[in-house]
Design a protein that fits this description.
mainly beta
Length: 433
């Protein structure tokens, strides 16, 4: 057996338990969220990437005190269907922390997984006060492919489909990088604090501190800019979305679709909310959620046309399944709404459970997390889309909030601040009905 850190509980195939048709393939749990930086899972390759923060300590007394890296940050690649560490990579062991203030030490060597791309694991590690380093490691052996320094990056900074990454430098310069090489394609703009950056296949949208939206194509060329009318309580990152060929804006009670080529308005429609709003999207729909006063309006992404249904205001989040709008309502059930006409097609019920989160797999099956009481562990379940009931279920391995990652036909992955659990998706029982 491998000598995993005692702080991490690893469950491997010989310890697998069955619960209904869910088969636990792997779990890695940690007793303290401070000891765990996150996880990325490549279910196709059967690899899990675990991230562990490092530790910087101040030692000595009085004027002889000094800062020292006590332990480096670490990334482990686990082949999770067998008992095997593929590779392990330490980061930051040689970091110079001598000039850091004592109140900054807790943040230094914190680590954050960003994304998996074709050949690399992309992550960020804190190297100082408001200073981060984005690092790309080879999936195959953990070798360093490239690194670049920036301010704290968001997960959304990477655009896998376009091989792009957006880095904001300490002087406010926004650079567009080639993800495969780390090379700078273009320096887009210099921004002040308070700027918001949104990325998508069509390019990069930057809303500066004066409310001007600047849009750049994937080659770094500026396509257009326009002045927004955001109020002081508004957050630009909640109002702008970059899609495949357009940019969505929710501004001053209007929802607009702008061509990503030249900024020309494709359509504009009135929508809910003149104050704080949050903009969500699925493949076919745009959901505008007004926060105060509360309200929800659903639009078609191609035309902006409103889809009306009284249940939308009761839904807590939205996913799309073959044109249907799906999500849990405030009663703890899941409603399936026909996106064409806004009528409820089906209500899915998990007896004695309150559904927390819903996700649809790439083969159209519906999974969810649910809870009995606030103190109980979450339950992972799959709905039977024929009967509307629960097809299979199992308790998740620890209390707390687990996020249901996008499931595939092979695996269902749930992760939290203390670890990850991977389940075999089991057979698609619809083929047998």
């Amino acid at each position: 057996m491998l000598a995993f850190d005692d702080a991490c509980s690893i469950v491997l195939p010989e310890e697998i338990e069955m619960s209904g048709s869910f088969q636990l393939v792997w779990e890695a749990l940690h007793p303290d969220a401070d000891q765990f930086g996150g996880v990325l899972v490549d279910s196709t390759a059967g690899h899990g990437f675990l991230f562990y923060p490092g530790d910087v300590r101040r030692t000595g007394v009085l004027m002889w005190q000094k800062n020292k890296v006590h332990s480096a940050a670490e990334v482990q690649c686990i082949r999770y269907r067998v008992d095997e560490i593929v590779w392990s990579r330490s980061l930051g062991a040689d970091l110079d922390v001598s000039r850091s203030y004592s109140h900054e030490l807790r943040q230094i060597l914190q680590i954050r997984p960003l994304m998996l791309v074709q050949s690399a694991v992309v992550l960020a590690i804190c190297i100082g006060a408001e200073q981060w380093r984005v690092v790309a490691l080879s999936k195959e052996d953990g070798a360093l492919l490239w690194s670049t320094d920036c301010v704290e990056p968001a997960v959304e900074a990477g655009i896998e489909s376009a091989d792009l990454f957006v880095a904001v430098r300490s002087d406010g310069t926004v650079d567009l990088l080639r993800m495969s090489s780390g090379k700078v394609i273009s320096s887009l703009l210099r921004v002040a604090d308070g700027a918001s950056i949104q990325t998508g296949s069509a390019g990069v949208a930057i809303v500066d501190d004066t409310g001007i939206l600047h849009f750049f194509a994937p080659d770094g060329k500026k396509r257009f800019q326009l002045q927004l009318t955001l109020g002081e309580l508004d957050s630009a990152e909640n109002r702008v979305r970059v899609r495949v060929d357009d940019v969505l804006l929710c501004d001053a009670g209007r929802l607009r679709s702008l061509s990503a080529q030249d900024g020309q308005v494709r359509w504009t429609v009135p929508t809910v909310g003149l104050g704080q709003v949050a903009l969500f999207e699925t493949r076919s729909y745009v959901i505008v959620q007004a926060l105060s006063p509360p309200g929800v309006m659903v639009h078609r992404a191609d035309t902006g046309a409103v889809i009306e249904s009284p249940v939308f205001g009761q839904m807590r989040h939205w996913v799309e399944d073959n044109g249907d709008i799906v999500g849990p309502d405030r009663s703890g059930n899941v409603v399936v709404v026909d996106g064409a006409v806004g009528l409820v097609k089906q209500t899915l019920t998990a007896e004695e459970l309150t559904v927390f989160e819903v996700a649809v797999s790439d083969d159209g099956r519906m999974f969810a997390t649910a809870v009995r009481t606030q103190d109980d562990p979450l339950i992972l379940l799959e709905f039977d889309l024929v009967t509307g009931g629960v097809l299979r279920q199992t308790e998740l391995p620890a209390p707390g909030t687990f996020h249901l990652d996008a499931p595939t036909s092979r695996s269902v992955i749930v992760s939290s601040g203390v670890g990850v659990a991977v389940y075999d998706a089991g057979p698609d029982d619809r083929a047998q009905k």
